[in-house]
From TrEMBL:
<dbReference type="GO" id="GO:0006487">
    <property type="term" value="P:protein N-linked glycosylation"/>
</dbReference>
<dbReference type="GO" id="GO:0005794">
    <property type="term" value="C:Golgi apparatus"/>
</dbReference>
<feature type="transmembrane region" description="Helical">
    <location>
        <begin position="28"/>
        <end position="47"/>
    </location>
</feature>
<dbReference type="GO" id="GO:0016020">
    <property type="term" value="C:membrane"/>
</dbReference>
<dbReference type="GO" id="GO:0000026">
    <property type="term" value="F:alpha-1,2-mannosyltransferase activity"/>
</dbReference>
<keyword id="KW-0812">Transmembrane</keyword>
<dbReference type="InterPro" id="IPR002685">
    <property type="entry name" value="Glyco_trans_15"/>
</dbReference>
<protein>
    <submittedName>
        <fullName>Glycosyltransferase family 15 protein</fullName>
    </submittedName>
</protein>
<keyword id="KW-1133">Transmembrane helix</keyword>
<dbReference type="Pfam" id="PF01793">
    <property type="entry name" value="Glyco_transf_15"/>
</dbReference>
<dbReference type="GO" id="GO:0000032">
    <property type="term" value="P:cell wall mannoprotein biosynthetic process"/>
</dbReference>
<comment type="similarity">
    <text>Belongs to the glycosyltransferase 15 family.</text>
</comment>
<keyword id="KW-0472">Membrane</keyword>
<dbReference type="InterPro" id="IPR029044">
    <property type="entry name" value="Nucleotide-diphossugar_trans"/>
</dbReference>
<keyword id="KW-0808">Transferase</keyword>
Length: 484
């Protein structure tokens, strides 16, 4: 649209020749003709060619040519570059509101240079999925890892969030360590219901689980995180050059000094997944996971590791009638709040195929699956048991779960208390009551399957601390049981 001053100038210029030359058409007609001609020619020709075309064109008269040139000059003044510059000056909503106008907007990290690992033996990294409101737990866990291990190695940290992390948040984190720290943004498309999941239906199921006292029953955030940890974090660009990822959960605590490097231990021993804790999941939360996994196995037998070499027998208890309704599935899982995993395995076709199959069912939302159960099932199908590693020497606590090393020589550098209630619970085999029934824990059975030497160390340790632990001959009975 023309400015008023330009319009007046054009009108004056157009009126003058009409008084001298009766052969010219009316001023209004000239303006319409000029405008329409300009529109057509701007589309077909560049501005420079347009000027050259009309420099010697007598068909519309000298004054008509001036009109065209004037319009061309106006168009040049409104070039895309200047329009873009003006659009960049437009204030967004948060910039117009006084109390949010000063919020910093620092771009998130996207890549890690290979030089980050030039002085490190393994391309390992710590990763956390964080929320800015959980700052103190995040700081405490990073401080714990740095004090017990990483201050002497300086492996990088990767903090991923679906939020924008402010400069003040980053400053509070980076002051904790001299290790490199990278802050990445989680893909927003992965932090919402996928297109094949009905939000209304999912919320109905959340309400149902909530009335059944399932932990995290009504938490959408828990489901978001579980799905992301199970199938997406290793695709983030910040982890593309990482070979081993060590998950650190905000609020977790490491209680023993680590003289050896767990990343190196994983690589040198050709391990794919390292863990400390196991747990039994609540049956209602994962009631369809095992049947779906059996269906996947039947359809993809060529992907399965040999059964006798896997940990799959650890997941099945056909002798206990308690698990009969679940086809023998005992609900054991390797806890993922501490896990060191080789990322090439999570990116493998077999793991990707399994996750895609599960994700397409909507079970993360229609039930209350967690990443630990999914990753445990995958490990049971795809990994030889020799590729799993139990980190006995790492003392670890998260929420109500705790592990103290089951070896006397390790306890001298630990602050955990093996005689505490949690420690006794672990040493007795992790028995707990669910629905009025006493259920044996999963850790010792899995360790027995992976490495019987460790279990003998546990037996010696239990005998030494038998009085204070009150474990009696529980370990001896475990050793005497027939193989799984």
């Amino acid at each position: 649209m023309l400015h008023r001053s330009e319009s007046n100038s054009i009108l004056k210029t157009a009126k003058t020749p009409l008084r001298r030359n009766r052969l010219l058409v009316r001023p209004a007609t000239i303006r319409v003709l000029a405008f329409l001609t300009l529109v057509a020619l701007v589309i077909l020709l560049s501005i420079d060619n347009l000027k050259r075309l009309f420099q010697n064109d007598n068909m519309i008269g000298e004054e008509g040519t001036k009109i065209i040139q004037s319009l061309c000059e106006h168009h040049q003044q409104q070039s895309p570059g200047s329009v873009l510059e003006k659009s960049n000056q437009i204030l967004l909503e948060h910039q117009r509101a006084s109390h949010t106008a000063n919020e910093d907007h620092i771009s998130m990290d996207t890549v890690i240079d290979d030089n980050t690992w030039k002085d490190l033996p393994v391309k390992g990294a710590f990763y956390m999925v964080v929320d800015s409101g959980d700052l103190q737990h995040i700081r405490a866990s990073i401080r714990s890892v740095e004090d017990r291990f990483n201050h002497q190695f300086r492996y990088p940290w990767i903090l991923l969030s679906n939020q924008h992390l402010t400069a003040s948040f980053r400053n509070y984190i980076t002051k904790l360590t001299t290790s490199p720290i990278f802050f990445g943004k989680i893909d927003a498309a992965l932090w919402d219901y996928p297109s094949w999941v009905s939000g209304v239906r999912a919320e109905e199921y959340m309400n149902y689980f909530s009335s059944s006292d399932v932990k995290h029953a009504s938490s959408f955030l828990f489901r978001q995180r579980a799905r992301y940890h199970a199938g997406f974090f290793f695709h983030h660009s910040l982890l593309q050059n990482v070979e081993y990822a060590w998950r650190v959960e905000p609020g977790s605590d490491y209680s023993c000094i680590m003289d050896t490097d767990p990343f190196v231990e994983m690589e040198q021993r050709n391990k794919t997944m390292g863990f400390i804790l196991t747990e039994r999941e609540e049956p209602l939360a994962v009631r369809s996971l095992y049947p779906l996994t059996l269906q996947f196995m039947k359809e993809n037998l060529q992907l399965m590791a040999p059964l006798k070499e896997s940990i799959f027998p650890w997941l099945v208890d056909n002798k206990d009638p308690m698990y009969a309704k679940a086809n023998g599935f005992n609900y054991c899982q390797i806890e993922s709040n501490f896990m060191i995993v080789k990322l090439s395995y999570l990116r493998s076709p077999e793991y990707q195929s399994y996750f895609s199959f599960l994700d397409s069912t909507g079970g993360f939302y229609y039930e209350r699956w967690n990443d630990a159960s999914v990753q445990t099932m995958a490990a049971a199908m795809f990994l030889p048991r020799s590729q799993l590693h139990f980190f006995n020497h790492i003392g670890y606590t998260f929420e109500r779960q705790m592990h103290c090393p089951w070896r006397s020589t390790d306890l001298g550098t630990c602050s955990c208390d093996i005689t505490s209630a949690t420690g006794k619970w672990v040493m007795r085999g992790g028995k707990k009551r669910v629905g009025g029934d006493a259920i044996r824990g999963c850790t010792l059975d899995l360790v027995r399957l992976l490495d019987k030497n460790i279990l003998h160390q546990v037996a010696q340790f239990a005998n030494k601390y038998q009085d204070s632990l009150g474990v009696g001959d529980a370990i001896g009975k475990l050793l005497a049981r027939p193989p799984i």
